[in-house]
Specification:
With about 290 residues, this protein is α/β, with parallel strands linked by helices. The protein is built from 10 helices and 10 strands. Bound molecules: NADP nicotinamide-adenine-dinucleotide phosphate.
Length: about 290
């Protein structure tokens, strides 16, 4: 079926999730986050991806309220941070209070911190209570997922959000998730802040033919792989550009060229080392005014 700006993917519990969204990592709390969310929604985005640790949930909630959309027209994701690992219920209720929402559409374990199985089992309860419509994980490699799936959980995660871009294609993980019915989301789809991969000659070579920007080529590659990208930008022109993905189709040859760019090059933290991250590298939680 042809993809459009309104297309959704059906998660393994029947909930429908938009096939692209707007990320707000490193978007400053206050007017910047509020305006980014409002602009994204005005440009047709229906999914917003935030997290406790981004420290902008309150401002994101204001942007959502500004949009005037009905709650059910939007898909809002947030994530549990390690401060709340032992009490995910409190973590979610606090996020909901900041977002000014009565439920989120997707609630993720942000990283495979120690004790993720116990935390996930609480997410199952929160989902049953209707506080989140879908649940899942982020930064989970195949071995983390196997450990979780073998631990007696009742709900197969609906989503795994992972760093995915042409230099880190995560082919084996994507295939594993596909077989288990777990939808993959691509974070840092353009390579991430300060580490963009938009000047690769292979991508630039495709731009003239498709009359598209390298960013759009990459995001379209995600969509054609069945992966849901959530690019971040605070600039209205880029927010718009990153959603203009539905008037061209990459050839199989070009998809393979991008697949071949893979170097397993992760720009974010290595998930297996997350519990050993030194405190000076840990993000600081700053309350919003
Ligand atoms: N689960 C996790 O652990 C995790 C980790 C990282 C990110 N995420 C999520 O994924 C989202 C996206 O990842 P990300 O923010 O790391 O990286 P990204 O979306 O790959 O890249 C963001 C950077 O690209 C720039 N940019 C955006 N669109 C552009 C365009 N069309 N042309 C040129 N530059 C462009 C942005 O600059 P401007 O803003 O100045 O336009 C920003 O510097 C995050 O916002 C967050 O929601 C999740």
């Amino acid at each position: 079926m042809e993809l459009s700006v309104n297309s959704t993917v059906k998660l393994n519990n029947g909930v429908r999730m938009p096939i692209f969204g707007c990320g707000v990592f490193r978007v400053r709390q206050g007017e910047e986050s509020r305006a980014t969310v409002r602009t994204a929604i005005e440009n047709g985005y229906r999914m917003i991806d935030t997290a406790r640790v981004y420290c902008n949930e309150r401002s994101v909630g204001q942007g959502i309220a500004d949009s005037g959309l009905k709650r059910e027209e939007l898909f809002v994701t947030t994530k549990l941070w390690k401060e709340d690992w032992n009490d995910p219920r409190k973590g979610l209720l606090d996020s909901l209070e900041r977002l000014n929402l009565s439920y989120v559409d997707l609630f993720l374990l942000h990283w495979p911190f120690k004790g993720f199985i116990q935390a996930y089992k609480v997410l199952e309860q929160l989902q049953e209570e209707g506080l989140c419509r879908a649940i899942g994980v982020s930064n989970f490699k195949i071995h983390h997922l196997k450990e979780l799936l073998d631990s007696g959980i009742k709900v197969i995660p609906q989503v795994n959000q992972m760093e995915i871009h042409p230099l880190n294609t995560e082919m084996a993980l994507t295939q594993f998730c596909y077989e288990k019915g777990i939808t993959m989301e691509a974070y840092s789809p353009l390579g991430g802040e300060g580490r963009l991969i938009l000047d690769d000659p292979r991508l630039i070579g495709m731009c003239e033919y498709y009359q598209k920007k390298p960013s759009q080529i990459i995001l379209r590659w995600d969509l054609q792989r069945g992966v849901v990208p959530i690019p971040k930008s605070v600039h209205a022109q880029r927010i718009l550009e990153n959603s203009q993905l539905f008037d061209f189709v990459l050839s199989q040859g070009d998809i393979e060229t991008i697949n071949d760019m893979n170097r397993d090059e992760r720009r974010n933290y290595e998930p297996d080392l997350i519990d050993q991250r030194p405190s000076w590298l840990e993000p600081q939680l700053v309350d919003e005014v």
